[in-house]
Amino acid sequence: MSPLPGLLIIVGSLIAVQPVIDSPSTAQQAKVDRTDSPKGMGIADARHLLDRTCFGAPHQTLENYASLTRDQAVDQLVSTLETEAQTPLPEWTGLSFQEIRDLRLEDRQAFGRTQRGWQQEARSWWAQEILTTSSPLTERLVLMWHGHFTSEMRTVRSPHAMLAQNQLFRKNGSDNFADLLRAVSMDNAMAIYLNTQQSKKGKPNENFARELFELFSLGEGHYTERDVKEAARAFTGYRVQGQGQVRKVSRLHDSSVKTVLGKRGRLDGLDVVNLVLKHPACGEWIARRFWLEFVSPTPDQDVIKKWGKVLRRSDWDLKAFLSHVFKSDQFWSSEYRGALVKSPVDLVMGSLRRLEISEIPGLQLNRNLQAMGQVLFDPPNVAGWPGGTAWIDTTSLLERRKFLQDAVPTAMIFSTWQKREGSANVGKSGMNPEKTPEMDPEMNPEMDPEMSPDMKPEMNPAGNRATRRLNRRQIRRYRPVAAQSVEKLYQQFIDGKSMNEEAWTLSWLPFQPVTDADQSDTGFGRLQELILDPTYQLK
Amino acid sequence: MEFDRRTFLHLSGGACLPWLVPGVEAWAFDDPQQKQLKVAPGLRERTLILVELQGGNDGLNTVIPLRDERYQELRPRIGLKKNQIIELDSKQGMHSSLKPLTEAWEAEEANWILGLGYPDPNRSHFRSIEIWETGSDSDEELQEGWLTRMLKAQPDPERAAEGIIIGGGDAGPLYGTGLRVINMDDPEKFSRQARAVPEVARGTDARKALEHLLDVQDDIKKAAGIIEEKIQASPDHGVRFPGTRFGQRCKIAAEMVTSGVPCPVIKISIGGFDTHNNQLNRHSRLLTELADGLAALRKALIATGKWDRTLISTYSEFGRRARENGSEGTDHGTAAPHLLLGGNIKGGFSGRQPDLGKLVRDDLIHTTDYRRLYATIEQKWFGLKGRSEVSRGAKPLDVIRRG
């Protein structure tokens, strides 16, 4: 993962760091959290908003948002939500159910290999969409729902079903929660993942019913074991079909009378979902998820209660709810600034988006993410990623730092090279991907291909199979150019009208750095100091 | 004012005293309970080196039944011939590529546990390794590694870390929160990375997330500090390790143990055991690499007097199908033998070879619950009472000389 060990230009200066004299002074803090002014919220607020809701943003975007008021900014974010991805889907998503089945029957082993390739491409596709979408809030919500209504590709296996579920989160994830919950309950991937697919009359499987109550909609304490058992019977007989949604097969469905959450009747799966939506705990449970996702790891029960009411009164309108959350005092409170730990996706995508790097030279985004403990489409278990401080342990923290030390500069140099030479040159002489001397032995894990497809070199997110890499000469040549462009960026702020030193810092960090991040003389160096400061890991 | 937070704490009350006593670590006074901390002597003095055979090792071609004709019937093409087997006793032999381990076998420092597995076996790499590494039943999902559950209740601030993972791979049996697990390719690189982690003075008002981050930074720096210090004073074992990837991992593991880095568990891995086709050559190569590495590790530990306090144990997600497949390989299977090595090991065999006459869909039925291995490590090797229940009531095996 460290193709350019020589690039640690700056790290040396961080070794002999002295203790910080003091935490941000009250004067500074007052500036950071100044109340919304009609002239615009300022760069620190813009960073706060976009780091939490959009995987960060390029500098120009930050400046644009800085000139808006908080309310205007939130309105703009919410009004630009999308329902479809912009990156073209991989070609194989066009295969029909029948065609896929034929492929499998033809040669099971070969199909297994093909499918693992597709799974990798599905991950790359989503990574690319997150990186380049014009509505990052959309993807932020897709990721949130993916962690809430969990399915794992390694269990579901079918990349078709997983991508269909991913589209579902995009289509319904910012629209209406009731529709979303209904759609998820009837989703193919979910039916495979939580065993609805095997559940039939006389032999109900409780897996989905239990998670529907416990994780997806109510939380523990708001339903009984009996509710689970009865609801499981309501969810019998649903079977995966074609693309997208399951269908109810009447001869497999238990149509007898059941009692769920106090209601009696010949309930089926959708009836149960509708009962869940009527339950007062549901709004609060979802409000809680938003709180944890966007505000702080410590729930504030009073606020969450209020938010739950807002959500239910709006008839589950998620756009209205998002606005409510993002405009709330809690969202902007100084108490919660930097209270959240950036997820690996936040850290990796956020850094690349901030630096406007959309194409990465064999950097293998998903391998970076995996090393930090987050594999797209594969949360660790049905409860999703635990998040928060669980993202940081001795191993993952070093991986995160390695990414910031090595990968970010590499990506910047590559990006500069590409801007100069144009992508036409990719793959031509001097770019032999097989035999480049810089090939890091770590890039070729001996891992068994059967074992861990994630460890295999993947195609780069642009969709080209060749692993692109610069050779040493190109790196030498382009490093100063890349440094120059950062320099220019940096000077622009420092000398320019709008930015001073502190604003520059707060356009990167949630609060003042805890290390001395102003030792280097160059913009490139200052940048490295900022992103290697522990506070850069927070949002 | 020249006044940092630490100075402030020094001056702010009685708590400042410990910092003034040379050689006393601040941690000892952070928590009054930790002062009386009793660490099981086994955990202090002994090391477990886990070797993961990634991909599912073919147990039946590792330890081979010599007097069972069904072996050749099940494996007409990949069954090992007499000259490819080293006889260990009248009934069993091992793959001749494991020859470098005969010295340990003859010194009675090697024990093969036969037929390890679990009921209702899962044949997915992912799921089955998860079962092995969490110590769960087949239909149960646990969120923590078995060693995490075992070690969580046994904190010892003097350790460099609870576990060191060498050469990549995930934490496996050390997965979960509450442990300090270091992942390193080589100690120098790790020290370099750790040195680049900034030293940060701690405030009292820091946000929880920041506090946690800085704690982890401290863990890293502390581990690196201890490792660096120990390695500098490392005794010369004089052993040349093989240049293979696994050999080099063994070399680093040896360095950790011989230099006395305080850490109860080291995990190394060797990949490529998923031999669906052309198994004979591949498997032979893998076992050679494995045996060469382990033999060198043994020599180094003997030379430095650490062999008696080290236990090496292999594990893998499953064994392979008893009946060979159509591509001169084997598919995912069930039970398999695993190897224990160490100066304190009773040589020989434990358990019994699964019956080749009683297969379930061409797969072996396990004869020893894999958690007996964990019970052995927990109770007999580390001398713990077994409260963590990683053994699930399974009895320890009688394979350790001095418990």
Question: What does this protein structure show overall?
Answer:
The complex is a heterodimer of chains A (539) and B (403). Chain A is an all-alpha fold. Among the domains of chain A are: 91-268, no CATH class; 281-336. Chain A is 52% helix and 2% strand. Chain A is built from 25 helices and 4 strands. Chain A has a two-stranded antiparallel sheet with strand order 1-2. A two-stranded antiparallel sheet of chain A has the order 3-4. In chain A, strand 3 (258-260) and strand 4 (263-265) form a beta hairpin. In chain A, helix 13 (207-217) packs across helix 14 (225-234) and helix 20 runs parallel beside helix 22 (394-421). The two termini of chain A are 25 Å apart. The relative contact order of chain A is 0.13. Chain B is α/β, with parallel strands linked by helices and 403 residues long. Chain B has a single domain, classed as Alkaline Phosphatase, subunit A. Helices cover 34% and strands 14% of the residues of chain B. Chain B contains 14 helices and 12 strands. Chain B has helices at residues 5-11, 17-20, 27-30, 32-35, 41-45, 69-74, 102-106, 125-134, 146-152, 187-196, 208-232, 245-258, 279-303, 371-381; strands spanning 47-53, 63-65, 85-87, 92-95, 110-117, 163-166, 181-184, 265-270, 310-315, 336-341, 348-350, 368-369. In chain B, strands 1, 5, 6, 7, 8, 9, 10, 11 and 12 form a 9-stranded mixed beta sheet that branches. The radius of gyration of chain B is 23 Å and the shape is globular. The termini of chain B are far apart. The model of chain B is unreliable at 1-36 (pLDDT under 50). At the A-B interface, helix 1 and helix 22 of A face strand 7, helix 10 and helix 11 of B.
